[in-house]
Request: fold
Amino acid sequence: MPPRDPAQPASRTAPLPDEEAVIARAASGDRAAFTQLIEHYQSACYGLAWRLLGDPDQAADAAQDAFVHAYDAIAKYRGGLFRSWLLRITANASYDILRRAQRKPTTPLPDAEEGEAELPDRSAADPEAEAGRSELYRYLDAALRRLPEDQRTAVVLCDVYGMDYGEVADATESALGTVKSRIHRGRLRLRELMAEHRELFLNERRLDR
Amino acid sequence: MTMQNTPHPDDELLAAYAGGDADALADASLVAHLSVCDRCQPLVHELSLLRGALAELPDLIPSRPLRLIPPVPAPTARGSWLRRLTAPAMAAGAGLVLVGAIGIGASADVSGLFGQAGAAFQNVGENLQGAGAPEGEATASDNAYVPGAVKGTLAPTSNETRGSTDSAGPSEPPSTRSSGEASPVVAPHPTNGSSAEQPWLTLLIAGAGLFGVSTALRLSLSPRSG
Reply:
């Protein structure tokens, strides 16, 4: 079967209704406009940093570093999805922290139960489906944390946050071929780690249809 | 349906296909294999679903309130290094201006009070010089200055006394002499005074420049309010 395009999940932060105007004001030095943008996307940035770093404090630090970089760079922002732009900056800030920590590439993150991140409140139109999704997300995040660091970084950036190979290579300062291999091996390893909970995402698909 | 005799593609290639990798999608033999292999097709399907679930992972609420915007560069912080940088320069500039002004004033006073004495002192110096100089030049000096009386006899202290007391006497200021009589090696009196002021004037100008530059630097670099 043909692989489907990555979904645009509803649970993720959608663009602001007047985002272009807010960006333009922020780019011209309006601090209130910049704050509005960052406040809107802070969960997206924190989520990415947490999934890359696995530590709440480090994730908060990385997100804040990213906001500073974004503030410095917003005057040079040249269109495109603001969320993607901000996430690329967050990925770089997170990777800087990872590199500074000099973790071994194969060190898995601590157990998911420690420092578990809080999901945003969402209106539960279908409580059963909502509970199933929450469980699936929890297991997925736990499985991601068990991947070797290089594979986790690549899979998170590509499959969770929709970056292409080139963007992942830039963020991780790695060769394109290396990145591809990490992503593909990471997917296979993740499938093994999710084997016990396969029904959750198979059921999720059925619930979606 | 099953392809017992055909080797399966590498699993990484299947994972690439599941993720929509352009090269894998364009791989005709892989596509052909997937259409008939009941081992690889479900694997690709499962990987695709897994990838779809990953793409839906929600954003996460920060564990603590985040600082959303860098703090405004604190005026005090920036002002303090500006002050540290420019204050000594401004003070030094002002000091030089003051010293220069005082120096000019003082040298003007000296010129006024002791102008005659200064000239006489210079005359004496010239005469002393003349005494040790070759005959021709000594004659020229003798013509220009008070002849005989002080020649070779005055120490600077006595010269000073003489200059101050006999200012209206025979030691008429060289400036009053005709230019034809003046020795080229002796500066006329007023010129003598301004050359005394010159270092002070330089000091004053340098001080004013230093003060001006450091003030301009502080004004141009200090953060604007609002």
About this structure: Chain A has two domains: 16-102, 107-209.
